[in-house]
Amino acid sequence: MTQGVRGTRDFYPEDMRLRNWLFDNFIAASLLHGFEEYDAPVLEHEGLYTRKQGEEITKQLYNFQDKGERKVALRPEMTPSLARMVMARAGSLPMPIKWFSIPQCWRYERTQRGRGREHYQWNVDIWGTTELSADAELISVIVTFFEEIGLTSEDIVIRVSSRKVLEEVLGSLGVEGDLFAKTCIIVDKMDKLSSEVIEEQLSDLGHSSEVIGKIQSVLGIKDMSNLVDALGKESAAIAELTTLFDLIDSYGMSEWIQFDASIVRGLAYYTGSVFEAHDREGKFRAICGGGRYDNLLSTLGGKDLPATGFGFGDMVIMELLADKNLVPELIGGVDDIVLPLNQDLRDIAVRVAAALRLSDRTVDLVLEDKKMKWAFKHAERVGAKRLVLLAPDEWSRKMIKVKDLETGEEKEVSLKDL
After folding, report:
1. How far apart are CA 99 and CA 31, in angstroms?
2. What tens digit of pLDDT does each residue of 266-288 get?
């Protein structure tokens, strides 16, 4: 049995180098903006997900009963765990909090391009402020990351809207509450399903042709001036979006941003601004997405706190980088390979390796009898900088041969000077 579980991935050393590179860039963009890292268990109470989203969500969970007959699940997303952690210290956390994490998440669903049953997701959240400056700060984190890995605004567009746009339109038609949330879930599939299927699903919810036509009309708006015509100048959604776009402009990010009323995000807990990053050519599914979710805690039995955040998966971005020829060529980070040329010198080789490691050099000590030809090939494979040789002639004079593999320079040094 050589294949892993369907929808999961193995990470060989070359894959881990790329994953670590990606995660390092996630972390760097977060730290540059003053966020702190947190983590939570991958195993959570099943009720953490069903309480908000109902028993239907269990179809997408890796869930089971443990030996104590407790219903548990592998986390499908990090936000509920974060909410649980915030509630556990309600009143004692200094606000606002700016936290990030890179958890592994699990969803039992059909595998497809850019989406497996397990993936890692960079989560960045701000809790405790209603200011739209927090939403703009999150977008700045994303743009900073894109710039650091070599992507530009010609490659990426971040589409921004607000749940309040559709809320105002449907509210005027009497569509509110749970029906509104279910409508958003369907609307979020508009880029994946045909218009006929979307219309059928909206009709199945009980929407009239008038309501469906209004939804399609509003969601087709890509320009703020047209949105003003649709909602009126007194619209709360217009005021919110105008403020947000002014803040984005002050960051110097406007070339990355496009208003798009069709961005609603399917999850029921979003309450305000929402956004998604896409490749401009439209070859891939959304790279990341997020928005404001001010009412989440009350659904879990707590007192609400304003919050905004995003999730950024590790799979689509690597596909996009490969498409753009921007995946870096990474080799191992070994400084020195220590090679004894006969068994009598093995103890000395161990002492040499230990001395080098004490000076914070990374050392690969050759553990078997190997020839020079093998050592040079191995050095190329792991990206070693030097070859440190323990040879009988040199060691008879208490000297060690060191070859710089970048310059080709060779020299003899004593153990003390190594």
Report:
1. 10
2. 777 788 999 999 999 999 999 99
pLDDT band, very low/low/confident/very high, at 143 (cuts 50, 70, 90): very high
How far, in Å, CA of 303 to CA of 63, rounded?
27
Rounded mean pLDDT, 68-87:
95
CATH among 3.30.930.10, 3.10.580.10, 1.10.150.120, 1.10.3720.10 for 13-40+75-323: 3.30.930.10
pLDDT, one tens digit per residue, over 151-172 is 999 999 999 999 899 888 878 8
CATH 3.30.930.10 residue ranges in the chain? 13-40+75-323
The contacts of residue 345 (CB under 8 Å, 6+ apart) are 390, 391, 392, 395
Helix residue spans in 47-131 (DSSP H) = 47-53, 79-88
What does the block give as tokens for 3? 């294949």
Contact 344, 329 (CB under 8 A): no
For 337, counting Cβ atoms within 10 Å of its Cβ (0-12 exposed, 13-18 middle, 19+ buried), the class is buried
Structure tokens at 267: 């999850």
Secondary structure in 3-state letters for 296-329? HHHHCCCCCCCEEEEEEECCHHHHHHHHCCCCCC
**CATH class given for the domain over 336-414:** alpha beta
Strands 386-390 and 399-404: antiparallel
Q: How far apart are CA 312 and CA 315, in angstroms?
A: 9
Provide the whole-model pTM: 0.90
